[in-house]
Amino acid sequence: MLSPHFLEKAKALDAQDPLARFRERFYLPSNAIYFDGNSLGLLSKDSETAVQKALAEWRDLAVLGWTQAQPAWMRLAETLSHKLAPLVGAEPDEVLVANSTTVNLHQLLSTLYSPRAERNQILTDSLIFPSTAYALKSHLALHGLDPAETLVVIEGDENHTIEEGDIIAQMRGGVGMALLSGVLYKSGQLLDMERLTAIAHERGILIGFDCAHSIGSVPHQFDAWGVDFAFWCHYKHINGGPGAVGGLYLNRKHFQRAPGLAGWFGSRPDRQFEMSLEFDHAVGASGLQIGTPAILSMAPLVGSLQIFEEAGIENIRRKSLGLNNYFRKITETFAAAFGLRCITPSEDNRRGGHVTYEHSRAAQILEALGRAGIVIDFRPPNLIRFAPTALYNTFEECYRVANALETLLRSEAN
Ligand SMILES: Cc1ncc(COP(=O)(O)O)c(C=O)c1O
Known about the structure:
It is built from 14 helices and 13 strands. It has helices at residues 4-15, 45-61, 65-68, 76-88, 101-112, 130-142, 147-150, 164-169, 193-202, 222-225, 295-311, 313-331, 362-371, 395-413; strands at residues 33-34, 95-97, 121-125, 151-154, 175-181, 206-210, 229-232, 247-250, 341-342, 355-358, 374-375, 377-379, 383-386.
């Protein structure tokens, strides 16, 4: 049994929560506690309204929607870049909403990776998301290089975390580019993107980050840090809906580069409809657009980014750390007794928006919690991730999930 003190404290924390009012803007699953916003964020009423508006504009304006919708569909990507820019610490023209996450990585690699014989290696780690690794290997292969020789992979440890010192030690020799995660998807470790960028640059290495798990949960300052490029998805912490269109950042120092994968929506806007067969690319991240924007998959972002604008990413981060800390503090009172081990770093500046536990019966815990109305997720073979989310979860829910977990483990042990 957990101490009743934890529940009282949770209620007190909820009563003082400056972001509490945002919870009612979301559709919460009935009879369930949703701790899976790091996989698929919930639908907000704002996003629902934005999608309905896009459908009504399609119905009423048909093709005229490209120029007469509010905002015009031709300009929707630009509108979203303005809203996203504060979340990544960039100018709007360095941010693009288009394509999918993996396609954006392909686009960035084809634009920025130009192997010189003596610096053709890419540095990454063994804990990067599989699709990111596949994209890296395919680019090396497209350049006629053998990934076994040109992909330098830092090994993670038993906690699915990476020593930054190990990454830095490998920033040498033939490495011309580094690609790392902002927040590692299994352990939730947050890398020090500022420090890694500074050291990469001292050593003449371009550096980019997969920010799928940090965007919308952790503030970024890409311009101030000097990051070269980044990409991310919008369906996790940003709540943009299943398969929402992805995002990327291109530092303006690379604006002169021609897009690696050219397409007509990457054209200079004033020349796109000249329909010339010569590609004259837009200067900036929007030059990396490829084809016609997926308006219906972008529409939810109009609503969800409105919520981020109102809530403020610094406030979101503060509450996210508070929720994660609280959940962890309660869980740590019984974890070791039941073979549950937290692999997420404990320092605030080393973790993102979820807490991961390792347990030999992780899959069974996931199922049993699911039956008890608690939605979390599972990464085989033995990890369960809990993501109490600042915009729609409460401290009381942290207590309730920890309590359900304790009850379950205790009943299994008896
Ligand atoms: C960390 C990370 N990187 C990349 C991807 C790939 O994203 P997509 O399937 O949208 O291309 C994902 C998907 O979940 C992810 O979690």
